[in-house]
Specification:
The chain contains ten helices and nine strands. The protein is an alpha/beta fold. The protein folds into two domains: 165 residues, Rossmann fold (3-Layer(aba) Sandwich); 106 residues, K homology (KH) domain (GMP Synthetase, Chain A, domain 3), CATH 3.30.300.20. The structure holds guanosine-5'-triphosphate and magnesium ion.
């Protein structure tokens, strides 16, 4: 074997034993779970907004660090559910926790343990897996408040480890990766080493448009809407033509989604197309249609599209 060959081989398969496993990111809505997933994977895999309840189903993001492949599961925030969709989201989050080797509870340090965080800590007591705590958004709080929060949370549950991080600027994130890579079980990697997500491109594209919609539209509209990719056509000139439908529940919502002279839909479309072009590294022609579907929030087919179980009753 030539020397060149040796080098190529060692690059593909890390020397020594490999580690791998699933880490569920759970926490209250808006804690920064999706921001952290993207940060740790090093690419946009899951959408982010300043609004609550952005993530609706589990998104897997795959990272490698040292000899480990770490499969992060971004989950919907846990909150008190009202609608059928809410219930499905919260059930899916707890389901993600059950499937994980390690559960990482993410808390917004500024909000602390108020409200949902307190209830999640209660719920976690019955979950047998190893748990770690990450206090996020440390760029926003004083060090002494952080220490108080860390000990208050650890009084409720003995976390294996507590990290203080900023998903936004990356501080503390290397420590998290070092810890996970070291402590996940020994075993073969689950995914090819260059794969970063398990989300089909059509679905990621729908999510990107939904993110722009969350950023642009307000009040109940983001929650009353749902995006699906209807068609995807690769063209001979190297560009792609994508058609998507934004479902809303009422005619009045359709008017808001379109905006005066179509301004809202145009802005959403432009923002989404720009980001999709970047991700796909090709020219994107994006066509958005707004359709009223009164009961999409009670339609099992829509839940299946989103990767959610349909809660009966
Ligand atoms: N200042 C600051 N803001 C952050 C940090 N991490 C996330 N954010 C912001 O917090 C907001 C919520 O972030 P997301 O990643 O969407 O939160 P999430 O936990 O996935 O929320 P849901 O999917 O709705 O449950 C966004 O506006 C982020 O930019 C951080 O470390 N510092
Ligand atoms: Mg999220």
């Amino acid at each position: 074997m030539t020397e060149e060959h040796d080098i190529a081989d060692s690059a593909a398969e890390p020397a020594g034993p490999t580690h791998s496993g699933f880490v569920a990111l759970i926490g209250p809505t808006n804690a920064g779970k999706s921001t952290l997933l993207n940060r740790l994977v090093g690419a946009k895999v899951s959408i982010v907004s300043h609004k609550v309840q952005t993530t609706r189903a589990i998104v897997r993001g795959i990272a490698t660090h040292n000899n480990a492949q770490i499969v992060f599961m971004d989950t919907p925030g846990i909150f008190k559910p009202r609608r059928r969709l809410d219930r499905a989201m919260v059930t899916s989050a707890w389901g993600g926790a059950k499937d994980a080797d390690i559960i990482m509870l993410l808390i917004d340090s500024e909000r602390g343990l108020r409200g949902d965080a307190e209830k999640i800590l209660e719920g976690l007591k019955d979950v047998p897996q190893r748990k770690i705590l990450a206090l996020n958004k440390i760029d926003r709080v004083k060090r002494e408040d952080l220490l108080a929060l860390a000990s208050a949370a650890n009084e409720k549950i003995a976390f294996d480890e507590t990290f203080m991080i900023s998903a936004e600027n990356g501080s503390g994130c290397d420590d998290v990766m070092d810890y996970l890579a070291k402590t996940l079980p020994e075993g073969p990697w689950y995914y090819p080493e260059d794969q970063i997500s398990d989300l089909p491109m059509r679905q990621l594209a729908a999510e990107i448009t939904r993110e722009k919609l969350f950023l642009r539209l307000h009040q109940e509209l983001p929650y009353a809407s749902h995006v699906e990719t209807e068609s995807w056509e690769e063209r001979k000139d190297g560009s792609v033509r994508i058609e998507q439908v934004i479902y809303v529940e009422r005619d009045s919502q359709k008017k808001i989604a379109l905006g005066k002279n179509g301004e809202a839909i145009k802005a959403i479309s432009t923002a989404s197309r720009k980001e999709l072009s970047q991700i796909l590294e090709q020219t994107v022609h994006l066509f958005l249609f707004v359709k009223v579907r009164e009961n999409w929030g009670d339609d099992p087919e829509r839940f299946r599209e989103m990767g959610l179980e349909f809660p009966r009753g």
